[in-house]
Amino acid sequence: MDINKHWNLARSPLGGWPTDGDFVLNQSAVPEPQMGQALVKTIYLSLDPYQWGRRRNGVETVGEVCHGRTVSQVLKSRIPSYREGDIIFNTSGWQEWGLVGEGISEFNYMHPRVIDPALAPISTALGVLGMLGLTAYAGLYVQCQPRPGDTVVVSAASGGVGQNVVQIAKLKGCRVVGIVGSDEKCDYVRQVLGADDCINRKAEHFEALLAEACPEGVDIYFENVGGAVFEAVLPLLNSSSRISLCGLISQYGHDDAASNHARWQQTGADVFSQRSVKIHSLFVGNFVKDYQDQFLREMSAWLESGLIGFREDIWQGLEKAPEAFSAMLKGDNFGKTMVQVGADPTVN
Ligand code: NDP
Q1: pLDDT in tens, 218-273
Q2: Ligand 1 pocket check: which of 249, 282, 283, 295 to mutate, most ligand atoms within 8 Å of Cβ?
Q3: Is the CB of 178 under 6 A from ligand 1?
Q4: Cα–Cα distance between 227 and 219 in angstroms, integer?
Q5: If you measure from the C-alpha of residue 137 to the centroid of ligand 1, how many angstroms do you get, rounded to a whole number?
Q6: Could you tell me if the CB of 135 is within 6 A of ligand 1?
Q7: Domain with CATH 3.90.180.10 in the chain
Q8: pTM above 0.85, yes or no
């Protein structure tokens, strides 16, 4: 019997950030595909902040295989849409083997699709050519409509979403200032991604350094983190500036979400309204139908011509998933976080 290893949610998270007892590594028989299904083997598993939200909010129930998007290879197919050997994007979760096709629940808006390995490394379907790239494209390009010369501030600028935002903003002729959690990340954001400046959020006098880096104020703020970083950007917002409210990762391990909302309401009264700041709440799922094709076309062309690059933080082995997940939530990642679960047949 072939064995499938998988991580299951071991308990309802106690609050705060993930800890060792939240996950348990189990094994069971590799499933047999029924008519209308295909058996797939996981190559890459995506680790994303929203997965913690699902676990904390009870969307993922105790005992379930942990949810996660994957790049997989079709090993046995009983469905015409997939051929054996195809590389696909799907949502197998934190496990070595999975099924796609009839009767297999899909992640609501990211449907399985066959990936063209000639386009780019297949791992990019989880990052720059996947949901994270589309998130950056939708929040910056579609919602905030950058104009040449705008000052764009991006938090978590070296991360999965942030690195795309920085580079798209530069392509649109903006002045870009990144915010990150280490000097090493700052160097990367400036030297590799091409930002005009980058500030370490842990630096002494962070607020003053950020103000210095934005002498003409901020026209667009791409919000990935919330908390103290948001508070530092707030006074710098120009009249008629735009915010894409993509994520508030600094708050995901807190139980005082109410106080964070209260802060947003208060600032809404004294800054947002007086300066006509436009706040766009961002949910990438709302952009798939209308923008996915356009995004894939443009982003693939940018990648091919070298105008956009990407950095991935790839951990080796399914066993590492909980550790890699915690590291990413704490900011110890550098680029898009994923785990390589099986051999990548497209790499020699
Ligand atoms: P990243 O790769 O950017 O990793 C998370 C980063 O958040 C860390 O590297 C760290 O960057 C930063 N961070 C962690 N803790 C804190 C903290 N306490 N204070 C400030 N920064 C912190 O993750 P993703 O690119 O996957 O996601 C980025 C954001 O986008 C998240 O908030 C996520 O929820 C959101 N998102 C939203 C979507 C939507 O539809 N709205 C879709 C996808 C993602 P550093 O240390 O460099 O500051």
Answers
A1: 999 999 999 899 999 999 999 999 999 999 998 887 766 566 666 666 666 667 77
A2: 249
A3: no
A4: 20
A5: 16
A6: yes
A7: 3-125+310-340
A8: yes
Which atom, in ligand 1's list, is nearest to the CA of 48? 26
Which class would CATH give 3-125+310-340?
A: alpha beta
**Where in the sequence of the chain do the CATH 3.40.50.720 domains occur?**
131-285
> What is d(CA 192, CA 194) in angstroms, rounded to the nearest whole number?
5
3-class DSSP assignment, residue 66: coil
Write out pLDDT tens, residues 75-116.
999 999 999 999 999 999 999 999 999 888 776 677 899 999
Give the mutation target among 57, 142, 161 for probing the ligand 1 site: most ligand atoms within 8 A of CB: 161
Å from CA of 99 to ligand 1 middle: 30
Give the pLDDT mean for 266-288: 83
Per-residue pLDDT reduced to its tens digit, 173-223? 999 999 999 999 999 999 999 999 999 999 999 999 999 999 999 999 999
Q: Look up the CATH superfamily of 131-285.
A: NAD(P)-binding Rossmann-like Domain (3.40.50.720)
pLDDT of residue 104: 84
Residue 145's pLDDT band, with cuts at 50, 70 and 90, is very high
Nearest CA to ligand 1 atom 18: 250
- Residues 110-123: what's their mean pLDDT? 92
Instruction: Please indicate whether residue 46, judged by its CB atom, sits closer than 6 Å to ligand 1.
Output: no
Q: At what angle do helices 321-330 and 49-56 cross, to 10 degrees?
A: 100
Cα diameter, the chain = 67
Of 336, 299, 253, nearest in space to 19 by CA: 253
Give the pair of three-digit tokens for residue 99. Answer: 């099924």
Instruction: Produce one character per residue of 289-325: b if its CB has 16 or more CB atoms within 10 Å, e if not.
Output: eebbeebbebbbebbeeeebebbbbebeebebbbebb
